Amino acid sequence: MGVQYSKLLLQLLLVAFFIAATKTEPPLSKPNCQQKCGNVIIPFPFGMTEACSLNTSFLITCHQNLSPPTPFLQNFYQISVLDISLEYGQLNISLPVARNCLINNLTGESVIEMNLGPFHLSSNQNKLIVFGADAAGLVYNLENASGILYPTIACMSVYAPAASAPDKSCSGTLCCETPIQQRLSEFFYESSTNIFRRNNTKRLESYPCGYTFLVKDGAYKFHITDIFNLSTNNKFPVVADWAVGTHTCQDAMKNASSYLCKSNYSECRDAEVGPGYHCKCYSGYRGNPYLSNGCQDVDECNEKTHNCTEGSICSNSPGIYSCSCLKGYEGDGKNNGTGCRPKVSSSRIIIIALMEELSQATNNFDESMVLGQGGQGTVYKGILSNNRIVAIKMSRISNPNQVEHFINEMILLSQINHRNVVKLLGCCLETEVPLLVYEFVPNVIKHLHNQGQSLKLTWKTRLQIATETARALAYLHSATNAPIIHRDVKTANILLDHNLTAKVSDFGASRIIPLDQTQLTTLVLGTLGYLDPEYFHSSQLTEKSDVYSFGVVLVELLTGKKALSFERPEAHRNLAVHFHSSMQEGRLLNIVDSHIIDEANVEQLMDVANIANHCLRLKGEERPTMKDVAMELEGISVVEKHQWEKINLSSEETENFLKAIPSSSFSIVDGVNRRSINSGSNILNRISFSLSGGR
Ligand SMILES: *[C@@H]1O[C@H](CO)[C@@H](O)[C@H](O)[C@H]1NC(C)=O
Ligand SMILES: *[C@@H]1O[C@H](CO)[C@@H](O)[C@H](O)[C@H]1NC(C)=O
Ligand SMILES: *[C@@H]1O[C@H](CO)[C@@H](O)[C@H](O)[C@H]1NC(C)=O
Ligand SMILES: *[C@@H]1O[C@H](CO)[C@@H](O)[C@H](O)[C@H]1NC(C)=O
Ligand SMILES: *[C@@H]1O[C@H](CO)[C@@H](O)[C@H](O)[C@H]1NC(C)=O
Ligand SMILES: *[C@@H]1O[C@H](CO)[C@@H](O)[C@H](O)[C@H]1NC(C)=O
Ligand SMILES: *[C@@H]1O[C@H](CO)[C@@H](O)[C@H](O)[C@H]1NC(C)=O
Ligand SMILES: *[C@@H]1O[C@H](CO)[C@@H](O)[C@H](O)[C@H]1NC(C)=O
Ligand SMILES: *[C@@H]1O[C@H](CO)[C@@H](O)[C@H](O)[C@H]1NC(C)=O
Ligand SMILES: *[C@@H]1O[C@H](CO)[C@@H](O)[C@H](O)[C@H]1NC(C)=O
Ligand SMILES: *[C@@H]1O[C@H](CO)[C@@H](O)[C@H](O)[C@H]1NC(C)=O
Ligand SMILES: *[C@@H]1O[C@H](CO)[C@@H](O)[C@H](O)[C@H]1NC(C)=O
User: Whose atoms come closest to the Cα of 45: which ligand?
Assistant: First the structure.
């Protein structure tokens, strides 16, 4: 019972699928009419019964006994149909080969008469071809013919030894071709050979026959061996025109009941030559304009035929589609338009006098509130009077260069609004000690290297961190006015919030590259172990330097090892180098973090490792762009999402974990005399600050 039930279910599903599948394809034939004969689709006005076709001229007979079943024009039994085009009002047919032989056992028709009824061979699209030694092919037009008939097209191919005849060109020896510049409908063609009546037995034995056939221009390429194995069964496509009606569009439209463009989304075009017209679906629609429901909207978005850039939203509507940019981006979203660029808010930073508050917020810049210390200053955790937790970065007063870094960071961050970039809430530059106020992000990623005492980052989380970081960097590199290069990409600068969302931080070293320059020459900055080797030598700054550093971060996520560690044996000190040699020797799994080996499948690890390897190419130009990297990682993440459940981490657990290990966004710890800053805290006369409300 169970088996039968599931069988039935399967059948139902198949039927449902079939309905769904056929529903998306607009019908090409009249309702209840067979749509295909063999491999050939027969669209109305053609049809395989009288009711299914416009009239008997468009009637098709399907010869089921042939393999594959082959359609023929009903009234003209010799003419098989290869293809019918609604778009061009043409059909490809094949006509028999006429053969004239001087050896009795080789028979064949040497004269073939054709009547295409209302159809015509398309002028200038077909050729007459003749094969043979001293053979001729002749075409006679029978339309309006009276009295003595003369050929209207002729071609002659004369004898030459096969060896001296040009191999591939059909130019008069053994083969002859000529264009057909007439619209033939009723005609015959004839083949004859040995037209000079030479008594040359050897030659006649070698070339006993002459052949004549019609073929679509470009559909046949001559080869000398064909002369010896051409048979009357060979088929060559010929293009013919068809049209409906006997009047122009203008006249035809006057009589709605006989007007044949039945679809509401279709238009009429006069046939280029001769009487009648064609119907066409409006642009953005597709199907059969001769049927009332025939033209249906093309869903460009689903079919991926749209021109919306990656990262924009494509929306389909009848006949048209539109592209729109994601929140935070602007532009027309089109590939050949402006695309989507990060939106630049003129300035999110509003200056508010607030002074005392920051001092209070950090408990007068108390040591217990220090989150981290670095080359550029100290970061404090602060709790504002509205209970909002912020991070406050205080410059080291001693170094005037630091002020420049601060201004740099402030200008950059005030232009950026991205969920994976740490948010600048306010700043203060007019004080002696510049301050920057950020959203507070508890940093958990550093514990990747500290697995003994910390949360094990799952493979899924690592992949997410990688993807989000790549996304943020791709965003920075595509900034509207000019690309922003971070210059100090490292795990320590990737913060994680409670939801394990990655946030790229520390833009002190970053640079904006004006659009008219592709690279800048600047002082080498960055962190050992992450530094682009090319940049190290050239001091040329490009986006590809960030790509390299990101590659190192990827390797860290894969291996759980630090980028640079003097505790490791010399050959393994530099992780990027170690990784590269492991990859080359096919020993990737030896260095992958054992914690994730069980979780991730090897294919994914390989994919990510390959991306990392690509990012770590010595030559910047060989590295992918951050956009490419982000897209590849997103692809892998999508697969990952379906494979693993979301991690279930309550905020309480995260909190406890965070308390256990102090967080820092700074990797270099240097001796900052915090007290001197403390004592000078009342120099904070005015503080620039704003609370732009969340995201
Ligand atoms: C029929 O002709 C069209 C247009 O000339 C061509 O694109 C198509 O390939 C042809 N089909 C066959 C079966 O020769
Ligand atoms: C025709 O006859 C000739 C000689 O009688 C023979 O060599 C040739 O094979 C025959 N051809 C065919 C197609 O039967
Ligand atoms: C045949 O005659 C008809 C009527 O006179 C004319 O419209 C048509 O163009 C002629 N066809 C040819 C091929 O001359
Ligand atoms: C053709 O040539 C052969 C000898 O090569 C000869 O026997 C024969 O009579 C000739 N036939 C004609 C019709 O001239
Ligand atoms: C003749 O034979 C050659 C070699 O087998 C083949 O490539 C060619 O297509 C044949 N020609 C025809 C017209 O069948
Ligand atoms: C069928 O219709 C076409 C155009 O609508 C016309 O040219 C042709 O003569 C018609 N054929 C018959 C048999 O009525
Ligand atoms: C319109 O077309 C129908 C069907 O072909 C025909 O019966 C009718 O006479 C035509 N009307 C006019 C005004 O030509
Ligand atoms: C086509 O347009 C006519 C008149 O506007 C309308 O009555 C008919 O329902 C439409 N048909 C379809 C298939 O949309
Ligand atoms: C996409 O743009 C190209 C060039 O601008 C155009 O030819 C093509 O039709 C467009 N495709 C769509 C689906 O709009
Ligand atoms: C966009 O424009 C460029 C040149 O202007 C052209 O080469 C490219 O094919 C176009 N792309 C699309 C999708 O239209
Ligand atoms: C974390 O995710 C929850 C649920 O999606 C959301 O409500 C909360 O605002 C997020 N917290 C942060 C800090 O983004
Ligand atoms: C997460 O864990 C809590 C407590 O263990 C449980 O109640 C909850 O259903 C879990 N949520 C998910 C999505 O698994």
Answer: 6
Nearest atom of ligand 10 to the alpha carbon of 335: 13
- Please tell me which residue, 410 or 553, carries the higher pLDDT value: 553
User: Cα(557)–Cα(591) distance, rounded to whole angstroms?
Assistant: 11
- Could you tell me the sign of the dihedral formed by the alpha carbons of 470, 498, 558, 632, in that order? negative
Atom 14 of ligand 9, nearest CA residue:
306
| 49-77 residue pLDDT tens | 999 999 999 999 999 998 899 999 876 65
Q: Tokens at residue 313, please?
A: 């939203």
Nearest Cα neighbor of 190 from 209, 213, 157 is 213
What is the position in ligand 8's atom list of the atom closest to the CA of 293? Answer: 13
- Tell me what percent of the residues of the chain surpass a pLDDT of 70: 74
pTM above 0.90, yes or no: no
- Catalytic residue numbers read 488
Q: What is the DSSP letter of 25?
A: S
Q: What is the largest CA-CA distance in the chain?
A: 123
Instruction: Output the CA–CA distances (angstroms, integers) from residue 654 to 10, 388, 455, 498, 659, in the order listed.
Output: 46, 18, 9, 7, 9
Give the H/E segment covering residue 643: helix 626-643
3-state DSSP assignment of residue 95: coil
Tokens of 602: 């090897």
Confidence of residue 601 (pLDDT cuts 50, 70, 90): confident
Q: Buried b vs exposed e over 276-311: b needs ≥16 C-beta within 10 Å?
A: bbbbbbbebbbbbbbbeebbbbbbbbeeeebebbeb
**Tens-place pLDDT, residues 170-214:** 889 899 999 998 889 999 999 999 888 888 888 888 888 899 999
Whether the predicted pLDDT of 654 surpasses 50:
no
- Do 269 and 277 meet the contact criterion of CB atoms below 8 Å apart? yes
Report the sign of the C-alpha dihedral through residues 652, 654, 656, 658, in that order.
Answer: negative
Q: Reduced to 3 states, what is the DSSP secondary structure of residue 214?
A: strand
Our CA angle for 260, 263, 265, nearest 5°, is: 130
Cα(563)–Cα(134) distance, integer angstroms: 82
End-to-end Cα, the chain, rounded Å? 56
Rounded to the nearest angstrom, the distance between the alpha carbon of 636 and the centre of ligand 1 is 41
Per the prediction, the chain carries an average pLDDT of 78
Bridging pattern class, strands 435-439 and 237-241: unpaired
233 lines ligand 5 (CB under 6 A): no
